[in-house]
Amino acid sequence: MVSTTLATVTILTTLATQGALTDYLWLLVVGFIIAFILAFSVGANDVANSFGTAVGSGVVTLKQACILATVFETLGSVLLGAKVSETIRNGIIDVTMYNGTEHVLMAGSVSAMFGSAVWQLFASFLKLPISGTHCIVGATIGFSLVAKGQQGVKWLELLRIVASWFLSPVLSGIMSAILFYFVRKFILQKKDPVPNGLRALPFFYAVTMGINLFSIMFTGAPMLGFDQLLWWGVLLISIGLALVIAIIVWFVVCPRLKKKIECKYLSLVFVLILTMKRIRMDSYTSYCNAVAENGAPEGLGDGEVALEIADDDAGSSRSSLDEDRADADRPEVSMLFQFLQILTACFGSFAHGGNDVSNAIGPLVALWLVYESGSVISHAPTPIWLLLYGGLGICVGLWVWGRRVIQTMGKDLTPITPSSGFSIELASAVTVVVASNIGLPVSTTHCKVGSVVAVGWLRSRKAVDWRLFRNIFMAWFVTVPISGLISAAIMALFTYVIL
């Protein structure tokens, strides 16, 4: 971090004579430092949306998740972030108000980054997943109210954000619950789930690839030339590639996966027949854990299992036995969904890097362009090195502190399995893509939380930590005002004391 900051200062010092605001070089330097902290906070909080469920289901370890997220977050930041970052220039406020007072907009950008970073870091400390977009929007409104009053604030955008607190989790939760209902009914609850699972696999892969490819191409990454494609061209390409993937999965992946499952499952049954003829457990929970871990062999009757349960635990244990059995994926089912969940998580991380890097460096881009051009209105493209700078901060935040919110999303809110994790990832991605393109305001974070809660509740009525969900919702509710108040306080300090 220190070397990156020193390199940035050197570059800025060389270019200082080219700008019209050379007296405010110090604001630019402070802005770069705070932008890195803001990117760190985004990595510590928002990246959990991509890999929290994958870690919680045991499909990947925390270290593997960090490695994959580092790769895909950085790629997303560079390839997709340029277009998304430009929206900050005319987002929640009218920047033309600052013509002639460009240094005030520079100070405001620093204030917004500070307010957003502080609240996201505090939320990460509390293990609460919040929306980085809402943080930066609230912080932007905060500094603008101090600098220019209500003039130029687009209040309709704020109302749309408030609506997203309810729309996002509800819509995504419904989509995820519907998908998981069909997965459970037609695959998980079958005596032999493998045949139906293999038949459904090409469809799942096709939908996963099609939705995510459409999302990436429709975003319009300039470096990949996607910004030149018309919407119907993007749609046709996505459908075509999805069909190709489905064919490959049906003729190549499914036969290999079937053979792998048969070999592993038959050997497991053989071992269990030899070693599990009579089991002594001190609770139904320990029995269910053993079955969940190893799978129950066919032909093992109830008379062959001995259970000793304390009287005070018997009632609750027996009542929850069926739910506990239904909660855990069988080993052969887990193998069907493991790579699918990794795939959806990687796509989600790639899209997140492209979208949420703007939350980290959007104000920094505005700050840089104002300083470089001397004007609040600039049509210059976002420099790639700025996107890399934001991507680096996001990755550092993920490695250092990301485990806190990952634990909330993947374990604390509700237990996750590969099948439920896949349902959560795919349905929330579909919700974000569809809602965004028909004009409904949704938050990726809120969508993912809503999906986790809905699927957890569908799996088991007692599986969701409703107290934690209440705390998360309260954090959403106060995100805009708190980040706005912090930003306003810093802007007041700039306005009345420093500038």
In words, what does this structure look like?
It holds the Pfam family PHO4. One of its GO terms (cellular component) is membrane. This protein has helices spanning 2-15, 25-45, 48-56, 62-85, 102-125, 132-148, 155-188, 194-219, 231-275, 284-294, 311-327, 331-373, 384-412, 418-437, 444-459, 466-498; strands at residues 279-281, 305-307. It has 499 residues and is mainly alpha-helical. The chain has one domain. Helix 1 runs antiparallel to helix 2. The protein is elongated. Residues 1-19, 277-292 and 297-326 have low confidence and may be disordered.
Question: Which labels suit this protein?
Answer:
mainly alpha; two-stranded parallel ribbon; disordered N terminus
What separation lies between the terminal Cα atoms? 28 Å
Structural class: mainly alpha
Large-scale geometry: elongated
How many domain units? 1
Order of secondary-structure elements: HHHHHHHHHEHEHHHHHH
What is the CA-atom radius of gyration, in angstroms?
A: 25 Å
Percent range for β-strand residues: under 5%
Q: Reading side by side through the largest sheet, how are the strands ordered?
A: 1-2
